[in-house]
């Protein structure tokens, strides 16, 4: 069995995720977008907007500054000139996936239909016609939001305000139908999902496909392996949130077919698998800020194995107990995670605030600072902010040069 060093596994993973691809020299186009999506396979959606929404940032990390419309035109209303490339569904959490991958998750739609109906039995018994009413209203009005549907169906939208467990019955039914694949996202207004019928969103040839569950899961694991380069079976499983039996069977089949090669990675306790098409570059250069939901680091134990970087999101941690900050971005430099910065886009003041900046142990703040300052300045410009403001928390040896380099305090 081949043995890989941790450094080689790290370079393999970075190449698989697109961090060794050259950035566009000029304007970022759909061709570049497709290349990046070919690496990541999907983009996770998340509602947190303290810096930038999660689905935009992985493209910035790999391609640099690009117009938000590039992704929005690919994900939502399509035209003949710009057909839809992406559709929303539950993949790694709520995600944007390539339109052609939608049939690979039909088994999950059937599974969700059963489980969501079981959990919603009381709702469906008390409002037996609501599912049909919602579908009929979406057919007439779509793309349409849950609040509008609530009003059209005669409910009181005010009863749904508050935490997620107080959603209106109409919203719950919309999410049930979304999970079942009977509704999808036609477009978004801000971050509000506007529901529509799949037949008005997806091509007929995509809707016609319904692969066998085993075939679909094997293909999803194949995509996970391409996106990760080298990974354990739980890593491969996590990418599309598969069950252990599903993933283990698919991994065994891909090993038998020669598409995955079992390897030992130094320091990893579990068996690893190398995708046979994965490349291992001799070195990785360049820099990138990574949002908490970047596919490179969203499996936290994998990030720790690859980079020696322990990372936890602290949004739900009370402020006095946070170690690094509310919304912290790791900083990738020449193949290593060398620092982390807490970021907030202060749109009223038109600045990118950095409440905290922390150098990782063993990495020279003097080397990190100019690269990080440039990355922060580039991100601020991309977000149409006027500059960067460095806050007080973090490593003094990093904060001081960052302030000098960004020119604002």
Would you spell out the secondary-structure blueprint of this structure?
Blueprint: E1 2-4, H1 6-16, H2 30-40, E2 43-44, H3 57-63, H4 68-75, E3 86-91, E4 93-98, H5 106-119, H6 121-126, H7 130-141, H8 146-152, H9 169-179, E5 184-189, E6 192-196, H10 204-207, H11 213-228, E7 230-232, H12 233-239, H13 244-256, E8 260-265, E9 272-275, E10 287-289, H14 300-307, E11 328-333, E12 336-346, E13 351-359, H15 365-382, E14 387-394, H16 396-406
Parallel strand pairs: 1-8, 13-14
Antiparallel strand pairs: 2-4, 3-4, 5-6, 7-9, 8-9, 10-11, 11-12, 12-13
Which percent range describes the beta-strand content? 15-25%
What's the assembly state of these chains?
single chain
Shape: globular
Number of strands: 14
The DSSP helix count reads: 16
Mean pLDDT: 92
> How would a crystallographer describe the biggest sheet?
5 strands, mixed
Instruction: Classify the helix fraction into a percent range.
Output: 40-55%
Order of helices and strands: EHHEHHEEHHHHHEEHHEHHEEEHEEEHEH
Class from secondary-structure proportions: alpha+beta
